[in-house]
Amino acid sequence: MSIGHTLLGLLESGPRHGYDLKRAFDEKFGHDRPLHYGQVYSTMSRLLKNGLVEVDGVEAGGGPERKRYAITDAGITDVEAWLKQPEKPEPYLQSTLYTKVVLALLTGRSAGELLDTQRAEHLRLMRILTDRKRRGDLPDQLICDHALFHLEADLRWLELTAARLDQLATEVRA
Q: Taking the complete model, does pTM exceed 0.85, yes or no?
């Protein structure tokens, strides 16, 4: 996820302080991985330096001055271009799980046990996400569906690999 573009997009609705941007980000996108304040302010500093935001006002308070940021025309153009650009599909060709299966086979360990353990972990996480989806609002349901579909694909791969384990063992040991 591009945090900079996400913060820019949030600014399109109007100027905000860094604290407000963090809160909006966490509410909309950060359920599982909230932003740190330092990340917000370092990102805003970079966006300011690049001319994508400007300081719309400064308020004095009990602590440091609070800057209110506004998106610039260049920032709006940048968000528009980012939104139109398709995300690169992740082919997972350098899978850690695949590496573990091959290494288990090469070292005489049980790749079948590894696959069984991984399957159980995937199913455990799928149960958690399914329960969360049941209780969640539409945005949370959609993000859970995204994760569940990926986990289902992983499960299909686990089953396929388990079915071909003897053949794989022969090939990797050759």
A: no
